[in-house]
Amino acid sequence: MFQFESLGLETAFYRRLTAHQCAQLHDASLRILERTGARIHDQSAVDLLRRGGARVSDGNLVHIPSWRVEWALRTAPKSLTLFDQTGAPSLRLSGRKAYYGNGSDLLYIVDHRTDTHRRAVLDDLHQGIQLLDTLEGIDFVMSFVLPSGVPVELVELVQMQAMLSYTQKPVVYVTTNLPRTQSVIAMAESAAGGAENLRNHPFAVCYINITSPLRHNVESVQKLMWLAEKGLPAIYLPPTSTRSVTTPNTVAGYIALNNAGQLAGLVLAQLTREGAPFLRCAYGGSTFDMRTGIAQLAAPEARGFQSDLAHWYGLPCFGIGGTSGSKTVDQQASMEASLTLLLASLSGEQIIHDVGYLDNGLTGSLEQLVICNELIGWVRRFLPGLEINEDTLALDVIHAVGPDGQYLGQAHTKRHCRDDWYPPLLERRGHEDWARDGGQTLRHRAKQRVEEILAAYTPRPIPSDVQQAWDRIMDS
């Protein structure tokens, strides 16, 4: 008998760029940074870049030499482990392993109880985080909604408190300025048992958007430098949708310019603290519909290219998937969520966020999150490579069964029948059984699942000293 060794790919994957094309885009980004330059709207950052070899003109127009960018790419960590809030390793960001999470700051919600589209409120924030904590396909959590009725100066703190109270999964948070970043990190440090514990076992990542690839606003620059100094991870990128507005319409020009903005941030982070953890944007979806002027997060034109470039650099990467332009939970929402989740996963995007987004990032839905959790289950079962060995080839079983037998009664079948994915929400029964139980659609079953999860959810107790620390931060 032959002795078979394991063969095959570790995971399914998809590429849109060759290594030569990645090098072309990288070279174009270097030329942009050195020739055109980027405006850095923070004097301390300008001074640091000047000391690092950059040429400064017109006050704050910084021209970064290519050798300094190459240095930053060498010094930046090529992998990153994010922990859960108990200190256990959770997300290992290297290679092509994909992890999934929702998005942040949605203004509206499709109420699953009334089917109405309305402004999000504080209860939606709490229920959303509770649901996300329960869904096994969700690996990290973002703030979900921007609750109306909460004072503007407290919104980000209220969001962080909800994420620290209702889930132990890693969190990706968004803040508007440095003082609020410092406050939410103080909350995270209290939950972690101190600043050193959070630095050594990071469970919170700051998502920083700059104004445009060549305009780095003071709030974003200050947050990046402060986090780098503390050794805490940050995602630093231009806004999601830029083509034809702050970058060229052509996809190659968009990627080159967008990449230049990210490389400028990488240089600044590494000059602040060599080896500071830095996550690169890996997603496309940058298209504006020129008929409406509305950004399309699920558009196909630019998807996959940024992922290939991120892997060419070897940097941990932040992606997007499970999103839709649909205004409600319907066929379009499922179609676009499916396509973007699958492509992001095949492209090797590591932290895939915005799962469950509707209306191009304006509206959320608990039903859509449950449906996307099902989609993630399908994708995860699809991705692994094929294991080929004596047991999986089953040649002895095939020989024993022969041409006239069947496999249902075989021990081999019993041993492997649970290898397949059995979805908890999708309908797989015959039509008569489905009709007898009410003929419910996927959306109806998703509504029921949301209610079951929320009814059964019990929040973990928060230690009194941690709650008191949060109260002091909120009151300061």
Q: What is the CATH top level name of the largest domain?
A: Alpha Beta
Strand % is 5-15%
What quaternary form is this? single chain
Most strands sheet = 7 strands, parallel
CATH superfamily of the largest domain: Trimethylamine methyltransferase-like
- The total of helices stands at 18
Q: Trace the largest sheet across and list its strands.
A: 6-17-16-13-12-10-9
Structural class: alpha/beta
Rg, rounded, reads: 24 Å
CATH topology of the largest domain: TIM Barrel
* Annotated CATH architecture of the largest domain: Alpha-Beta Barrel
Helical proportion?
Answer: 40-55%
Average pLDDT level: 94
How widely separated are the two ends? Answer: 73 Å
Could you characterize what this model shows?
The chain contains 18 helices and 18 strands. With 476 residues, it is of the alpha/beta class. The protein has 2 domains: 74-382, Alpha-Beta Barrel (TIM Barrel); 394-419, no CATH class. The chain is globular, with a radius of gyration of 24 Å.
SSE topology sketch:
Blueprint: H1 19-36, E1 38-40, H2 43-51, E2 55-57, E3 61-63, H3 66-75, E4 80-83, E5 89-93, E6 99-100, E7 108-110, E8 117-119, H4 122-134, H5 155-166, E9 171-173, H6 178-192, H7 195-200, E10 204-209, E11 215-216, H8 218-230, E12 234-237, H9 251-272, E13 278-281, E14 287-289, E15 294-296, H10 305-313, E16 317-320, H11 331-346, E17 351-353, E18 363-364, H12 366-382, H13 390-393, H14 395-401, H15 411-416, H16 431-436, H17 442-456, H18 464-475
